[in-house]
Amino acid sequence: MPESGNISGARYDNILGTVGNTPVIRINKLGPPGINLFVKSEAFNPMSSVKDRLALGIIEHAEKTGALKPGQTVVEATSGNTGIGLAMVCAQKGYPLVVTMAESFSVERRKLMRFLGAKVVLTPAAEKGTGMLNKAIELAEKHGWFLTRQFENEANADMHYRTTGQEILAAFPDGELDYWVTGYGTGGTLKGVAKALNEKSPGTQIIVCEPDNSALLGSGKRQLRHDNGSPSVSHEAFRPHLMQGWTPDFVSKLTEDALKEEYVDQVVPIEGQEAVRLSRALAQQEGIFVGISAGATFSGALQVATKAPEGTTILCMLPDTGERYLSTPLFEGISEEMTEEEMGISKSTPGYRFDKPSAAPPAAAEEVKPEPEAVSYMEEAIADTEQPVVMFALGGASSAGLCANSSIVSASRTAPSTWIRWPTRKTTRAASCALR
Ligand code: PMP
Question: Cβ(290) to ligand 1 under 6 A?
Answer without folding.
Answer: no
